Amino acid sequence: MTTLQERIADVVSRDACSGCGLCPRLDPGVRMQLDDRGYLRPVLDGESAPVDDAVAVFDRSCPGMRITAPEAPADAEHDALLGPNVGLWQAWATDEDVRKAGSSGGALTALHAWLLETGRAARITGAAAERTAPRRTVPVTITTRDQALAAAGSRYAPVGALENPDAFRSDSAVAGKPCEIAALRAAAPDVVDGEAPLLLSFFCAGTPSQKATDSLLDELGIAPDRPVDALRYRGNGWPGRFTARSGDTEVSADYDESWGRVLGPTTQWRCKICPDGVGQAADIVCADSWETDERGYPTFAEGDGISALIARTARGRETILAAVDAGVIAVRALNGRHLRDAQPLQTARRRFLFARLLGSRLAGRRPPRYRGFGLIRLTVSRPREAVRVMRGTFRRVRAARQS
Questions:
Q1: CA 99, 241, 308, 18: dihedral to nearest 10 degrees?
Q2: CB of 248 within 8 A of CB of 228?
Q3: What is the per-residue pLDDT across 143-196, written as a single tens digit (0 to 9) for each?
Q4: Sheet holding 242-246, edge to edge
Q5: Segment (H or E) for 171
Q6: pTM, rounded to two decimals
Q7: Comparing 173-177, 233-237, 266-270, which segment has the lowest mean pLDDT?
Q8: Which of 42, 114, 209, 217 is most deeply buried (CB count within 10 A of its CB)?
Q9: DSSP per residue, 243-301
Q10: In b/e form, how buried is each residue of 296-333, taking b as 16+ CB within 10 angstroms?
């Protein structure tokens, strides 16, 4: 009978691990550790002691094994590229400090603070800069508004939110990457005592290597052996700048330079074959609601942040509308076409994902199994582009396996 450790080793060997942090919950002898490429991976660091039915829970919950799209509510509007929703808005925090601190309008940060202040959640689990070494990103538990503000803004680096035991408490709200939220949703019946936590997510373009952050800092003038006192990837404006401080040295780079040139190209393989960068398993999802130019491409000019806010479930819709009534966030209706235009990476990735998965399998790397996303139908609707994507993926995967 296959053991949990053999299952984990198989996922890691296929480069299918997303670094979500679920494994330590299934076996306390496992911890998450950066590998030599700068990605977070599960490592056995003590005596293995799997929980009951650990293999079965892993098989249905690990994002490197499978992701099954949740059943949509009966009243949901369906979008093949962005997933179903029961509410779609542009949104922003009414508190200007919160709006500026967030990556795109501060809606998610405002919800975090409000959930805590009203007692709707006893805590928020998420990610933030490591307090004494801000180069690194770590799981955190947030219990106050000040802590929510301190954790505001995107973190383009490896972190496994599910490493935090508080993520498995029913009185929490969990903010995490789509893969983490999908894993928690699937595992909840066995690992959460009671109702699943309120699940919040965001559109995710993927997890870059930790080495990319260190490389960018080095380019900007903060050497790898220098301590960093503060580091933000975005925020304090929209889209905001990558900023860091080490002693008297302060450096920064704009969004195109930081994400576009340095961080984004190092995104791990599992993220490049993700069916769900848009967070279908969450109750609430937040995203950048970029303006677009005359060609339909997103523009990244600095301005007041605007979030796209999506309710995936009735629970999520009720939470958002209650926050609007409380004056915590302001909203206006958002057209799905506008959001598709503002998120070309997400739409293109899903549209041609089946071709990418097929190219990977033909090159000898078995991808995870995905169900319920309509990937075949999307890909065959554009056969020429699909063939090109399949061939390109085949070449890249074969070259990687031979290196």
A1: -120
A2: no
A3: 999 999 999 989 999 999 999 999 999 999 999 999 999 999 999 999 998 889
A4: 230-232, 242-246, 249-253
A5: none
A6: 0.95
A7: 233-237
A8: 42
A9: EEEETTEEEEE-HIIIIIIIIGGG--HHHHT-S-TT-TTSSEEEEE---B-TTS-B---
A10: eebebeeeebbbbbbbbbebbbebbeebbeeebbbbee
Using DSSP's 3-state secondary structure scheme, residue 4 falls into helix
Strand arrangement of the beta sheet that strand 284-288 belongs to: 137-142, 123-129, 172-175, 198-202, 284-288, 307-311, 87-93, 329-333
Domain boundaries, the chain: 87-209+265-346, 352-403
Reduce the DSSP state of residue 43 to 3 states and report it: strand
Tokens of 195: 């109702």
At 46 the pLDDT is 87
Amino acid at the residue 246? S
Burial class (CB in 10 A: 0-12, 13-18, 19+), 129: buried
Contact 307, 104 (CB under 8 A): yes
β-pair partners for 40: 34
Would the pLDDT of 318 be above 60? yes
Distance linking the first and last C-alpha atoms of the chain: 32
| Coil/strand/helix, residue 331 | strand
275, 370 contact by CB (below 8 A): yes
Return the biggest CA–CA distance within the chain. 59
